[in-house]
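Q: Convert this sequence to structure tokens.
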Amino acid sequence: MLGVLGRLVVPGRQRIGILWTIGIGIVAAFVGTGIASGLDIADTKGVDWGEWLTQIALATLGVAAVSEVKLRR
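A:
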């Protein structure tokens, strides 16, 4: 789901497949949780907005980067 949200944030058409989208989302989830834990914003009462926004930002960067690399080929 994070990969899909990342694709929604990146403007234009991305030339990456569903497997790349899923992979980017998984990596963004793990790395985003690690960053949020390091910043001590991962465990809050209610919705962990800081962690969630960090994960979406990383997924967005990942989608943009992979799309750019695939576009150049």
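The radius of gyration is 13 Å.
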